[in-house]
Amino acid sequence: VKETQYAGSGLMGRHLSVVFVLLSMACCHWCRDLTSVSCEELGPLPVGWEVRSTVSGRIYFVDHNNRTTQFTDPREGDVAVRYERDLVHKLKLLRHELSLQQPQAGHCRIEVSREEIFEESYRQIMKMRPKDLKKRLMVKFRGEEGLDYGGVAREWLYLLCHEMLNPYYGLFQYSTDNIYTLQINPDSSINPDHLSYFHFVGRVMGLAVFHGHYINGSFTLPFYKQLLGKPIQLNDLETTDPELHKSLVWILENDITSVLDHTFCVEHNAFGKFLQHELKPNGRNIPVTEENKKEYVRLYVNWRFMRGIEAQFLALQKGFSELIPQHLLKPFDHKELELIIGGLGKIDLADWKANTRLKHCTCDSNVVRWFWQAVEAFSEERRGRLLQFVTGSTRVPLQGFKALQGSAGPRLFTIHLIDANTDNLPKAHTCFNRIDIPPYESYEKLYEKLLTAVEETCGFAVE
């Protein structure tokens, strides 16, 4: 257990030196939300362990044997395998239910130019009926001859998300200056058609989930809670706005008598102007006291996540629900929904290697060894670009590389050694998740050619 000094943030009326105990975090990977696991499923705690909760309601665990505390449930390891099987089963049921809703005839055809992908996609998708969006998705880039067996649609979604989720357009903003998860911009009404655009964003998200693709963007976890219709809590602030979270927790855990001079009124910055908002009627004249501070924190948290975005969120939710009915999402928690919509953002190299098919080569071939050596040397961002070059998407399915989709169902990532001039660049076939690589003479040449292909190649054609 480590002690550190924390100076009160801007929320506090004055600077205070407060001691916080930082509980050690033993879990650094994504894990199941404990609130979705029953006590019967987890079983009893190990001998010498105790479960407690903070004033803000966050659960933590005390190990009296070693005199340590942690947020990770010590029983989680026992249910991890069962939970993974449970999640895969739920995903299969979801895909089955969605397949029953897909019309047997016709296509959802979208043709756009790369230069005007946002506006042209908006106009076409908003003209369609929800049932037409559920038909087999066929995307074409104007001036390119590629046939869409999945790869073109993934490329389209990747490029479209890059535009429509960009804070530059004013629909979304980053949750804080240094945390780059997205949330709805409360000042989006600067665009008079903003509600129609949020309806469009919801449709695109639903379209991606319905057709087994992913959205290339990371929203705050409370956003997914809201999509599921679940209440927002104080601990949801921890990953979204850590400083505000610390300040509100301090208020709950300390006697604020004669310390704070706050009222039920808060300030926020709107395009450089500071505006005031009352958390309750006549809030500017109601002081925050030891007796009403819990109400203040609850109202502050609700305002922080919903201030000025009710209409925008309802428009987005409407578009999403037109393709993904709410009742189909009831078995999932908000962290699972994040993975369903966005896939896995971090690439697991061991999983990638284990689920790669080799054609006309072996794992001992120079081209294969050098390919993986290059991938290991790439940054995380460049690995995503390589994956996007070969499969059409930077995202990995929730079940990992074994579940990559191609034409007519699952297709593993494939390295194909071809008989071609070594001056040529590697060539990708996104509909088959395949990369064709000439027999380069050295690692340096393969690295150079692969990097050039990933960074500079663009467009689809028919062989």
How is the secondary structure organized here?
Layout: E1 2-7, E2 17-22, H1 39-42, E3 49-53, E4 59-63, E5 68-70, H2 76-100, E6 107-112, H3 117-127, H4 130-133, E7 136-141, H5 151-164, E8 172-176, E9 179-184, H6 194-210, H7 221-227, H8 242-253, E10 265-270, E11 273-278, H9 293-306, H10 310-321, H11 334-342, H12 349-354, E12 356-359, H13 366-377, H14 380-391, E13 405-406, E14 409-410, E15 413-417, E16 427-429, E17 434-437, H15 443-456
Parallel strand pairs: 6-7, 12-15, 15-17
Antiparallel strand pairs: 1-2, 3-4, 4-5, 8-9, 10-11, 13-14, 16-17
Helix pairs in contact: 6-10, 7-11, 13-15, 14-15
Question: What does this protein look like?
Answer:
One of its GO terms (biological process) is protein ubiquitination. This is HECT-type E3 ubiquitin transferase. Residues 1-31 form the signal peptide. Residues 1-36 and 459-463 have low confidence and may be disordered. This protein has helices spanning 39-42, 76-100, 117-127, 130-133, 151-164, 194-210, 221-227, 242-253, 293-306, 310-321, 334-342, 349-354, 366-377, 380-391, 443-456, and strands at 2-7, 17-22, 49-53, 59-63, 68-70, 107-112, 136-141, 172-176, 179-184, 265-270, 273-278, 356-359, 405-406, 409-410, 413-417, 427-429, 434-437. Helix content is 37%, strand content 17%. The protein has 463 residues and is an alpha+beta fold. The protein contains 15 helices and 17 strands. β4 (59-63) and β5 form a beta hairpin. The strands form seven sheets. A four-stranded mixed sheet has the order 12-15-17-16. A three-stranded antiparallel sheet has the order 3-4-5, with no helix packed on it. Strands 1-2 form a two-stranded antiparallel ribbon. α6 runs parallel beside α10 and α7 (221-227) crosses α11. It folds into three domains: 100-230 and 310-342, Hect, E3 ligase catalytic domains (Hect, E3 ligase catalytic domain fold); 234-305, 2-Layer Sandwich (Hect, E3 ligase catalytic domain); 349-457, Hect, E3 ligase catalytic fold (2-Layer Sandwich). The longest helix is centred in the N-terminal third of the chain and has 25 residues, at 76-100.
